[in-house]
Amino acid sequence: MSEQNRLGVFKTYKLYVGGKFPRSESGRVYKVTDSKGQWLANAPQSSRKDARDAVVAARKAFGGWSGATAYNRGQVLYRVAEMLEGRKEQFVREVAASEGLSKSKAAAVVDAAIDRWVWYAGWTDKIGQISGGANPVAGPFFNLSTPEPTGVVAVLAPQKSSFLGLVSVIAPVIATGNTAVVIASADAPLPALSLGEVLATSDLPGGVVNILSGATAELAAPLAAHQDVNAIDLTGAGAELAKELEIAAADNLKRVLRPLAAEADGSDASTDWLAAPGTHRLTAFLETKTVWHPTGALGASGSSY
User: Fold this and answer.
1) What is the DSSP string of 108-123?
2) Which terminus of the chain is more solvent-facing, meaning fewer CB atoms within 10 Å of its CB: N or C?
3) Of 122, 202, 108, the residue nearest 163 (C-alpha)
4) 158 and 273 in contact (C-beta within 8 Å)?
């Protein structure tokens, strides 16, 4: 059969929750268009029930993921980069269409996103060395501070940088042992939903990352107020929404990562995300556990260590 006579096979985009690909609980979808207003696909419009299901999946996965060795988490993140490398062309097409970029610029963005996975993979077993350590104290004690993951983190992905920005907010959350419920860019969710397919085949346990698409404000409100969500990243929220979510998050003392000035007004351009990320996102969702341990006596002389 000639190419002209083939029936078009359109991609069905689905959510990524608990390692599976459900449709929205409500059955709703919404039209996703490119920068010129042309139809690209129908994306699932998540409901509050989808958000609650994602939190349940993230909590279930937290024990195993946070209990894994940092070295193993680094291996898994590196595997994500490997899988993305093999599907680079697909993501270049999706990023170009979603963000209105030329193919060459979209390729640069995708390359940077893959490199960012590798960068954070290298930090998994090193972040503890710069955010913890032995503390000098007055007395016969060892005093040791070690970082531990906060828990389930709700992540509002950047609205404009649909892929590089997305990776830049997800990778540090899971690199440090947290699990994530991610709200993709409302207008450009397709790269995020495709990322779910990569995560499902990259050794990442189901539930560690859960990806929802739909109206950011509609999904963020129940997550900010959810008692089993431990932290929230407000990067993809505008200034007014961010303020409302901060108030809701205070009810159970969630950790809150406020958007930078350039992000808060929705102007999170790809060029901002190309800069070196630093470690502030790694430490944003870490708690510090400090342990006091008495020093013991050695030998008959009573000397101590």
Assistant:
1) HHHHHHHHHHHHHHHH
2) N
3) 108
4) yes
